[in-house]
Amino acid sequence: MAVEPVSAMSQSIVVVDAFTDRPFAGNPAAVCILPGQAADGWMQDVAREMNLSETAFLVQDGDGFGLRWFTPTTEVDLCGHATLASAHVVWEEGRVAPDAPARFQTRSGALTCARRGALIEMDFPSVPPSPVPQGDVPSGLEEALGARAASIGRNRLDYLVELDSEQAVRTLRPDIHALSAVAARGVIVTAPASTAGFDFVSRFFAPRAGVPEDPVTGSAHCCLAPFWSARLGRQKLVGYQASARGGTVHVEMQGPRVLLSGQAVTVWRGALLV
Question: What are the DSSP calls for 188-239, one per residue?
Fold first, then answer.
C-alpha cells in the first residue's frame, strides 16, 4: 500500500486520560487520526515526541479504523488504554454515531468498543496465564521486584506475579534496570484488594518496551481478568491499578473474550506542524 505524506498543518492530535473520570489521572494516550497511511518511522518519531506510554494512530477503513499503537521506543501488539482513548475521540469528533460501535482492525485482530452509560466497553481477547514451574522462573525476577511471589504465571505477553497483599503491591519499589532483563513485554504484579469496591489491585512494569511503569494497562487486564475470575469464582470484577496516577478497570469474562470498561477525559488538542 502506498504511503501518503501527512499534511502537517491539518494534522490534529488529541491527548486523552483513559480509565478515569477526571483529568490528570488514569493513563494518558495520544490519538492521531491520519488522512492516510503514514510511514512507520514518522509514527515512531511522533510517539517518541509525545513521550507517553502509547500513541495511537488511526486511518479510516470503511465503517471502522485501522489502529496501531506505538510506545516511545516500539510498536506493540495490544494496548487497552489507547484503544479506549481512540474510541472516545472518534465518538467525540462525530466520526462514529453516538449509538454505533467503534470498530478497529489491529495486530491483535478486530477490536470493538461500545458505549455503556458512562463507561466505554471494549471487547478484547482473553490471554490467561499458565503457571510457571519454579525451575523456569526467570533468574532475578523476584530480586528485581524486591518481593517474594505467592505465585508466578506467564502468557504470550507478560509475566504475572501474585503478591500476598494489596499493601505489598502498593509499596513495591522495583529495580527497573534489573527488571528490563526479564524476557517479556512486561511484568504484572497483583494481589487481592483490601480496599472496598475493588476485587484486585495491580501494577505493570514494561521497561523493555520503553515504559518503566504504565499508569493503567488495559491489555494487562486481559490476563488479570481470567486469573482473578478463576480465583474468585465470578465473571464480573473491578480492578484498581495502583500507580501514582491510578485507574479503575471493570472486567467481565465472556468465554475466550474479556470485556474491559472504563471512562475517559479529553485533556488537550493540538496540531502537528512537522
Answer: EEEEE--STT-SEEEEEEEGGGTEEEES--TTTHHHHHHHHHHHHT-SEEEE
Between the alpha carbon of residue 215 and those of residues 2, 62, 96, the distances in Å are: 36, 33, 28
Grid coordinates of 177: 534496570
CATH level 3 topology of 8-120+262-271: Diaminopimelate Epimerase; Chain A, domain 1 (3.10.310)
* CA gap 125, 194 in Å, rounded: 28
pLDDT digits (tens, 9 = 90+) for 216-274: 999 999 999 999 999 999 999 999 999 999 999 999 999 999 999 999 999 999 999 88
As a whole number, mean pLDDT of residues 69-76 equals 95
For the chain, which residues make up each domain, given as ranges?
Answer: 8-120+262-271, 130-255
CA distance 214 to 53: 7
Q: Is the distance from CB of 202 to CB of 216 less than 8 angstroms?
A: no
Statement: 130-255 belongs to CATH 3.40.50.720: no
User: Average pLDDT, whole number, for the chain?
Assistant: 95
Q: Do domains 8-120+262-271 and 130-255 have the same CATH topology?
A: yes
- Can you name the residues that pair with 184 across neighbouring β-strands? none
Note the pTM of the prediction, 2 decimals.
Answer: 0.90
Helix (H, G, I), strand (E, B) or coil at 266: strand
Radius of gyration of the chain (CA): 18
Amino acid at 251: V
Residues catalogued as catalytic: 54
Q: pLDDT at residue 10 above 90?
A: no
Question: Which pLDDT score is estimated for 248?
Answer: 97
